[in-house]
Amino acid sequence: MHIWVDADACPKVIKEILFRASQRLSLPLTLVANQSVAVPPSSLINAIQVQQGFDVADNYIVQQVKPGDLVITADIPLAAEVLEEGGHALNPRGELYTVNNIRERLMMRDFMSDLRSSGIQTGGPAALSQRDRQEFGNALDRFLAKHLK
């Protein structure tokens, strides 16, 4: 299993949790972003900087992901593509995207986008709380315990 991170919008605290998990479990971890991303010195952890552009990092991840890999992303269309490729997707708030919930998430995303394009202010996501960090860590631990048997 390889862990891929859609790193452009991934909070630093989530990256730090992932760095520790990678080291603890000897799992390869790759952060993909449009900009340079700092990673700790490790043969297991690396960063890939892709060209600037819409969905360039997402497309790179989809091209690289293998069945059974885990992708960390808040990008719902990317999560849907990862699931289609046989991978798994977990968002930075600890929600595991599945074939059972991804369609609903895509519809809600599209609905909110339609509201914003019509001029309605919808606001953005709330700041990542301590509870969100804990939920992510717990979800990551559960996922890894289940899939690394």
Unreliable sequence segments: none
Euclidean distance between termini CA atoms: 11 Å
Average pLDDT, to the nearest integer?
Answer: 90
Strand order of the largest sheet: 3-2-1-4-5-6
Order of helices and strands: EHEEHEHEEHH
Strand-pairing-aware structural class: alpha/beta
Quick recap:
The protein is α/β, with parallel strands linked by helices and 149 residues long. Helices cover 44% and strands 15% of the residues.
Commentary on this structure:
It is a single chain. This protein is α/β, with parallel strands linked by helices. The protein is about 45% helix and about 15% strand. It contains five helices and six strands; from the N terminus they run βαββαβαββαα. It has helices at about 10-25, 55-65, 75-85, 100-115, 130-145; strands at about 5, 30-35, 45-50, 70, 90, 95. The protein has a six-stranded mixed β-sheet with strand order 3-2-1-4-5-6, sandwiched between helices. The mean pLDDT is about 90.
How would you describe this structure in keywords?
149 residues; 5 helices; six-stranded mixed beta sheet; alpha/beta; globular; 6 strands
